Amino acid sequence: QVFGMAEGLVNYTRLDDPEEIIIHTQGRPMSALDEVRVVDENDNDVQPGEVGSLLTRGPYTIRGYYKAEEHNARSFTKDGFYRTGDLVKLN
């Protein structure tokens, strides 16, 4: 299975992954250089197993939308992480 978005971050599972991983997760990032954070409403990292907002930064994640400064200010952190808008739980 593969999960991804146009802005970047593609995750995958392999056929030989445990059934628990295949059925209940989105897998692992395609690139070892992808960075993933799960944060609360104040951008503080949450503990493993807690729900938070997904942030990502990596080699194929966009750095900004063309001619959209206000949107970019809402969509990216100061250190370049993209705010996906997804609520997730990191195991």
UniProtKB/TrEMBL annotation:
Residues 1-66 form the AMP-dependent synthetase/ligase domain. SUPFAM superfamilies: Acetyl-CoA synthetase-like (SSF56801). Signal peptide: none annotated. The keyword Ligase applies. InterPro entries: AMP-dep_synth/lig_dom (IPR000873), ANL_N_sf (IPR042099), ATP-dep_AMP-bd_enzyme (IPR050237). It holds the Pfam family AMP-binding. PANTHER family: LONG-CHAIN-FATTY-ACID--COA LIGASE (PTHR43767), NONRIBOSOMAL PEPTIDE SYNTHASE PES1 (EUROFUNG)-RELATED (PTHR43767:SF1). This is (2,3-dihydroxybenzoyl)adenylate synthase.
